[in-house]
Amino acid sequence: MFSLKKMLLFCSFILIRQYMMKDFLEILKYTIPSIVVLAIAYYLLKTFVESNTKFIGLFSQELKTIKENQNQKENQNPDFVRLQLQAYERLTLFLERINPTNLVPRLMLPTQNVSQLHSALLHALREEYEHNMSQQIYLTDLSWELIKAAKESVVNLVNQSDRSLKGDDKAVILAAKILTSNFEKGKDPVENALSSLKKDIREQF
Question: What does the domain layout of the chain look like in residue ranges?
Fold first, then answer.
């Protein structure tokens, strides 16, 4: 009798265990996919949040940098514009001063000879140029190149006019030759440089 009772209990235990296992497996069948989906969703959401947090941080930093640069430019802009305008004024005056029609009469003296006037002209051209070299930082590359070309063209004109003359001749002879030896028609380098400066002013201001 005791053995039968034990057997019945054992069988009951087996049946209950199988029933519970079946229910447990049934529960797992529905819960495991849900857990996997939740895990994937959590991972994707976490990755998205981390990525966006990093992006927002970088974007905010970039905006801050841009704003600081803009503020810096705005603060510096009035002074820079003033210096830039002064540079254009100075280099316009430089071109007018090295124009042979202005340069020669300004430097020629009645007591000079050809050699003295020649030296005075070259010295003035060199000094005028060196005095204004620093202004190139405010100009376009094209305008500065045309200004350098204009100065070199005037130097060449002075030297070419001097070659066929004697050093002790009257300075007025060299002056007359320079003023009558015009640049090639339509290619006055001084006028070309002035035109470039005027164009820059119209476009930038």
Answer: 85-204
